[in-house]
Design a protein that fits this description.
single chain, 347 residues, mainly beta, ten-stranded mixed β-sheet, seven-stranded antiparallel β-sheet, Neprosin PEP catalytic domain-containing protein, Glutamic_endopeptidase, Neprosin, Neprosin_propep
Length: 347
């Protein structure tokens, strides 16, 4: 990878953020991007924007007003701990193969999600609030995300994923997580255009139980002119794009959009994990106590934001993590989700 470092800064949580010339970021090592520069911003989807209902979270490293210089992009420095956490250096940055929306008891992935399918989708948008769930061990995780999906669940699945960890990260694949794709900027693929958002860096501030609530907006949509899939974070901050040539099915459109939470349950102690999803509390507890997604929308072929139709809920293990959906004039379509994992009903 060719990379010229202009400057770096250290986040309060210990992360180092490198400011790299934008045309020398990892994406431009890809043969189809050699010698190019990031594209100009596309036309945003039209209609149905909602006012903010909770204070917005951004990122810890920018809390003091820091950002990278114009013409550069912030890249979180990969650490030895990051690599050791993975099963091997070769697989660092790739997910283990898994089924995205079905019960995945065999490999330990569990979900509490809302999804739509059966139509052609050109993007998705939602606000989700930020928590710091407890994770039992280093081989498990808990995340909240938007999946943009096309293809079958065999070996040609295309996905784009944008997540709240409470680190903000992205993922893409074109073959159901087998060999292609990666997290963040760890391979040639995603082209970053923003100098204020470091993919993989911590989100701040975070919500507290029965206290102040903080959320972020995420939108992924297909540029109707060039076909690339763009990512927006917060209130209108364009982060960058996945070039259309990366994908097979997603070169056209998605056939499923999914919102919600996912955990890994390794059963390392012989029982269900205590890894939390969302706030660690069930959906029935509601605002200020349970995690939520609000103002869920999809993007149609004419670049319009539309409310969801024919939506469905899925909780793989509802005694461990559940989901409840609702609708009102302020939040549009929304749902609460999550849970504590191991409990008397989830042994």
């Amino acid at each position: 990878m060719t990379c010229i470092l202009i400057c770096f800064m250290q986040s309060p949580d210990g992360d180092f953020i490198d400011c790299v010339l934008s045309h020398l970021q990892p994406a431009f090592d890809h043969p189809e991007l050699k010698g190019q520069k990031p594209l100009d911003p596309p036309e945003r989807p039209k209609g149905l924007y909602f006012t903010e209902a909770a204070r917005e979270s951004l990122q810890l490293w920018t809390d003091s007003g820091e950002s990278c210089p114009e013409g550069t992009v912030p890249i979180r420095r990969t650490t030895e701990k990051d690599i050791l956490r993975a099963s091997s250096v070769r697989r660092y940055g790739r997910k283990l193969g898994r089924n995205v929306r079905r019960d995945s008891t065999g490999n330990g992935h569990e979900h509490a999600v809302l999804f739509v399918n059966g139509e052609q989708y050109y993007g998705a948008k939602a606000n989700l609030n930020v928590w710091a769930p407890r994770v039992t061990n280093e081989y498990e995780f808990s995340l909240s995300q938007i999946w943009v999906i096309s293809g079958s669940f065999g070996n040609d699945l295309n996905t784009i994923e944008a997540d709240n960890y409470p680190r903000f990260f992205t993922y893409w694949t074109t073959d159901a997580y087998r060999t292609t794709g990666c997290y963040n900027l760890l391979c040639s693929g995603f082209v970053q255009t923003n100098n204020r958002i470091a993919i993989g860096a911590a989100i701040s501030p975070r919500s507290s139980y029965n206290g102040r609530q903080f959320d972020i907006g995420l939108m992924v949509w297909k540029d109707p002119n060039h076909g690339h899939w763009w990512l927006e974070f917060g209130s209108g901050l364009l982060v960058g794009y996945w070039p259309a040539f990366l994908f097979s099915h997603l070169r056209n459109h998605a056939n499923m959009i999914q919102f919600g939470g996912e955990i890994v349950n390794t059963r390392s102690s012989g029982h269900h994990t205590s890894t939390q999803m969302g706030s660690g509390h069930f959906a029935e507890e509601g605002f200020g106590k349970a995690a939520y997604f609000r103002n869920l929308q999809t993007v149609d072929w004419d670049n319009n934001l539309l409310p969801l139709t024919n939506l469905r809920l899925l909780a793989d293990h509802s005694n461990c993590y559940d989901v409840r959906q609702g609708r009102n004039r302020v939040w549009g379509t929304y749902f609460y989700y999550g849970g504590p994992g191991k409990n008397v009903r989830c042994p």
